[in-house]
Fold these 2 entries.
Entry 1:
Amino acid sequence: MNVQLDGRSHMYATVGDRIIIKGHRVGEPDRDCEVIEVQGPDGTPPYRVRWDDSGHECLFFPGSDASVQNFDHARS
């Protein structure tokens, strides 16, 4: 989730959410990753993520081109 506060955008995510980065050029595919750990306070970046296309895990500081797809994390 992205929230505007004081004219600045703040990103919030929880473990299991997906971060989507839109392609920057025509024909360039979107990239997405799964949040596997939240290292910032209260769900803010940085996040440890696993990239869907490569399986690579890294520490990620999302830019303005990223959005969070939040999922319901209720236990079944």
Entry 2:
Amino acid sequence: MSELDPRPETPASWAPPSLPSPASGPPVDPPPSPSSPHPQAPYGYPPPYPYRFPVVPPYNTYAILATVFAFAVFAPLGIYFGYKARQQIAQTGERGSELATVGIIGGWIISCLQGAFLLVWCGLFLTFLAGAP
């Protein structure tokens, strides 16, 4: 062969591997050993293992209530439930810290807006009352 030929030289005695005859059938795995907790895996595959879903802690109930109360019911209760939820989340490790923060911030914003509206309404009411003959 020439130097430019990329194929390596093969010895004359080399022959391709022979395939098993179809009459012999597929190879049979040995039975699982009694000491193994898992059955024998087929050749070339990793052994099976029990799949466990990751354990996710639940949401804190007060955190959910803080968000709901801040925007839909009564904003000062959203503030209270938000601070209470933060305390419980720090102790128990539950989820919902973001919800508690949303409840606190939203509760303060809505409470300030409601307070401003109440002051304006009371001022207008007193103005109309004072102007009445």
